């Protein structure tokens, strides 16, 4: 079963506008070691299509909107990210696909580790094998 955890970040708003603060181990449930973001995503593009062995992430669409498709080998859930105060937590071992980017979308990702290609599972076949291995160990 896919466990969906989303956050509604506190908005500090006044007549000037809105400010959101993200803090490790406070409103972000891990130590933030990396932040990256994607923008100018071309029409119809889908990204991601991988899982991570250990990495934890929080995804925030800070401008525009996009959708995140999560898979765990059995279930599939789609989570729209359509406001800058919404965060989606992705725990280790969950497959993700990002799609339906609006033209102005800026998708920011906070991550618990530095970039490490060896933490990626980039094919669906390898992902199913990874899940099977986890079952065998438990
Ligand atoms: P990629 O993994 O293809 O993005 P996604 O699968 O999420 O759509 O990453 C695109 C490129 O950026 C690839 O060459 C790896 C590089 N990259 C970094 O150098 N550092 C990072 O933190 C990330 C996420 C990617």
User: Roughly what fraction of the amino acids lie in strands?
Assistant: 35-45%
**CATH architectural category:** Sandwich
* SSE string, helices as H and strands as E: EEEEEEEEEEEEH
Q: How would you sum up the major sheet?
A: 5 strands, antiparallel
Distance between the termini: 16 Å
Hetero groups in this structure are: thymidine-5'-diphosphate
- What CATH calls the topology is Jelly Rolls
Broad structural category: mainly beta
Global Rg: 16 Å
Using DSSP, what is the number of strands?
12
Q: What is the helix fraction of residues, given as a range? A: 10-25%
What is the total domain count? 1
CATH class: Mainly Beta
What's the average pLDDT? 98
User: Taking strands numbered 1, 2, ... along the chain, how are they ordered across the largest sheet?
Assistant: 1-9-6-11-4
Give the full name of the CATH homologous superfamily.
Jelly Rolls
Count, helices = 1
Give start-end ranges of low-pLDDT stretches.
none
Shape: globular
């Amino acid at each position: 079963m896919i466990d969906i955890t989303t956050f509604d970040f506190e908005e500090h708003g006044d007549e000037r506008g809105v400010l959101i603060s993200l803090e490790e181990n406070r409103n972000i449930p891990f130590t933030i070691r990396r932040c990256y973001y994607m923008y100018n995503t071309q029409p119809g593009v889908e990204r991601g299509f991988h899982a991570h062995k250990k990495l934890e992430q929080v995804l925030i669409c800070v401008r525009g909107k996009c959708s995140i498709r999560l898979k765990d080998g059995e279930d599939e859930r789609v989570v729209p990210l359509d406001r800058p105060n919404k965060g989606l937590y992705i725990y280790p071992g969950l497959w993700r696909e990002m799609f339906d980017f609006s033209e102005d979308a800026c998708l920011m990702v906070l991550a618990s580790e530095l970039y490490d290609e060896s933490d990626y599972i980039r094919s669906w076949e390898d992902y199913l094998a990874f899940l099977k291995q986890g079952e065998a160990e438990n």
